[in-house]
Design goal:
Length: 331
């Protein structure tokens, strides 16, 4: 991993519990923590051999706990026995369309899973110094005014958005009521190597173009989104933990490179970088999604000194390179 993440000895020999460790951001976060000589403990629900957490051998270097966020007794045992100093809560059902099809599963994983984890942490808090909860720009719901800023209310309307609004508010409640060392991240759409959810626009487009097929766009192509490269997301999470102090207890921070684009522009950029000229197929059949979203990260810049280090094109080039190697191995 390119070493643009903040360097310090903060992580050396630090026990760190990560939920959602085998996901896109989780795998890069664990990879970085290992490079910093931390001791990761990873909560894993499923064994997915193609995920880079397993295929790149990351799983062989960490302690793994197998189970679900819905199992509060497992979470209590894990925190009590491993005594983590830092906790990153990334585990969630993250696909909007999956949430629309199966809201109850999403609510249980994202809402119940969050209160279970924080309740387990509250009961066994003797070791915990920082808890970073991954929320989302989706937690804001639809707002009349953009960009989203942290003082805006959280009012998701669709299942995934509601689940993130609730998890975010639950995290704030635990911080305020029980003085727990919680901070909250709100990021835009992640992209980077290792995302195997090919219904997302970046990996889906790269795969289609690699196969010389037309990329499919579920919307009309004009929905506006923030995109953040996975390595910048990792630096955001690490910074929240490293810079934690009581003055930011329960605070939420937006993280973005503050460059928004619509879906057609993202597909066009990827096509140009891959040297392809295949027109996308506009399906325009998406439902239950917010049309326009983008974030301001001025608070993170001012209070945490955080700023994205990767431009969209730089991140996309690294991402395309990762998938090219991945698809070649699959042949």
């Amino acid at each position: 991993m390119t070493n643009k993440v903040t360097e310090s000895n903060f992580w050396k020999n630090r026990t760190v519990l990560i939920t959602g460790a085998s996901g896109l951001v989780g795998s890069w976060l664990v990879d970085t923590l290992l490079a910093k000589k931390a001791k990761p403990v990873c909560l894993i629900r499923d064994y997915i051999p193609d995920s880079r957490f397993f295929s790149d051998g990351i799983s062989k270097k960490v302690n793994i706990v197998s189970g679900n966020l819905e199992d509060i007794f497992l979470l209590e045992r894990t925190i009590n026995e491993y005594e983590p100093q830092t906790l990153f809560h990334l585990g969630a059902q993250t696909i909007v369309q999956t949430a629309n099809r199966s809201p109850i599963h999403t609510f249980k994983a994202n809402i119940e899973g969050t209160w279970n984890l924080l309740e387990a942490a509250r009961r066994h808090d003797h070791s915990l110094e920082q808890i970073v909860v991954a929320s989302s720009d989706k937690a804001y719901g639809e707002q009349v005014k953009l960009p989203y800023t942290e003082e805006m209310s959280l009012h998701g309307s669709h299942p995934y958005d509601v689940s993130k609004s609730c998890a975010d508010l639950i995290s704030q409640a635990y911080a305020k009521t029980y003085s727990m060392p919680i901070t909250i991240s709100r990021c835009g759409n992640f992209f980077g190597g290792g995302d195997l959810n090919f219904n997302r626009i970046v990996p889906g487009t790269i795969r289609s173009l690699y196969q010389n097929a037309a990329p499919e766009i579920r919307t009309d192509g004009k929905f506006i989104r923030d995109y953040i490269y996975v390595k910048d997301a990792v630096s955001a999470y690490l910074t929240l933990a490293e810079k934690y102090n009581k003055s930011i207890m329960g605070e939420a921070f937006n993280f973005t490179n503050e460059l928004q684009m619509d879906t057609l522009e993202m597909v066009s950029r990827i096509s140009r970088m891959m040297g392809k000229s295949i027109a996308p197929k506009i399906l325009n059949n998406a439902s239950g999604e917010i049309r326009d979203q983008h974030l301001s990260s001025k608070k993170a810049q001012k209070i945490l000194g955080w700023k994205a280090q990767y431009g969209i094109d730089e991140g996309l080039m690294e991402t395309i390179s990762w998938y090219s190697s991945y698809f070649e191995k699959m042949q």
